[in-house]
Write a structure and sequence with these properties.
The complex is a heterodimer. Chain A is mostly beta strands. Helix content of chain A is about 0%, strand content about 55%. In chain A, the strands form two sheets. In chain A, strands 2, 4, 5, 6, 9, 10 and 11 form a seven-stranded mixed sheet that branches. Chain A is globular, with a radius of gyration of 13 Å. Chain B contains no helices and eleven strands. In chain B, strands 2, 4, 5, 9, 10 and 11 form a six-stranded mixed sheet that branches. A five-stranded antiparallel sheet of chain B has the order 1-3-8-7-6, with no helix packed on it. The chains are: A mainly beta, B mainly beta.
């Protein structure tokens, strides 16, 4: 009954590799997000999709490319990984109407680049 | 864009005492202010939120107050328990129905709350 799920939970890879993180929500929400939490615990938004349309694209390197095949899924692909990409990446989603403000987070993917 | 400042960065209290965490924001168009609790190695979890049309909201031992004029809001936890120990984040958003950077949550840098038994 997990509301927002992410895979993988841990990802260890070498510099220069390309990797993907997947996110799925079963809440029927129409908006999904990617956040990055760095080693100092600072949470910062990267992207947001509403009904498969990109609506927020913060100053993130072009090596990061989100893809939303449908409203329930938002994936994050990262090319040419760098040491500074090491962080925890959280997916989140939010819904409609009065509940549209509330964002629910997935369990996170801890990415370690060596 | 929005800037959210959060204080203190660490807070240590004795079990049973109250804890207060304060945040200020810069964007006068922000109208939604959630608080998240993040335990070590876990996801941020929404614990309470407030919208700009109210000044205070309570849920059992936690309460949030909002002063729109001064652009600050606070989290109050009463009768703290060891399980309240976590990092707490405040955030601000314009919400979905405002123009510009709607949907986007801007977070404070977090407060590590430690409740000593």
């Amino acid at each position: 009954d997990t509301a927002v799920s992410q895979t993988p939970k841990y990802l260890v890879t070498q510099m220069g590799n390309d990797k993907s993180i997947k996110c799925e929500q079963n809440l029927g929400h129409d908006t999904m997000y990617w956040y990055k939490q760095d080693s100092k615990k600072f949470l910062k938004i990267m992207f947001s999709y509403n009904n498969k349309e990109l609506i927020i694209n913060e100053t993130v390197p072009n090596r990061f490319s989100p893809k939303s095949p449908d409203k329930a899924h938002l994936n994050l692909h990262i090319n040419s990984l760098e040491l500074g990409d090491s962080a925890v990446y959280f997916c989140a989603s939010s819904g409609f109407g009065a509940a549209s403000y509330e964002q629910y987070f997935g369990p996170g993917t801890r990415l370690t680049v060596t | 864009g929005e800037n959210v400042e959060q204080h203190p960065s660490t807070l240590s209290v004795q079990e049973g005492d109250s804890a207060v965490i304060k945040c200020t924001y810069s964007d006068s168009a922000s109208n939604y202010f959630p608080w998240y609790k993040q335990e070590l190695g876990k996801r941020p979890q929404l614990i309470i939120d407030i919208r700009s049309n109210v000044g205070e909201k309570k849920d059992q031992r936690i309460a949030v107050t909002l002063n729109k004029t001064a652009k600050h809001f606070s989290l109050h936890i009463t009768e703290t328990q060891p399980e309240d120990s976590a990092v707490y984040f405040c955030a601000a958003s314009r919400g979905k129905n405002s123009g510009g950077s709607n949907y986007k949550l801007t977070f404070g840098k977090g407060t590590l709350l430690t409740v000593n038994p």
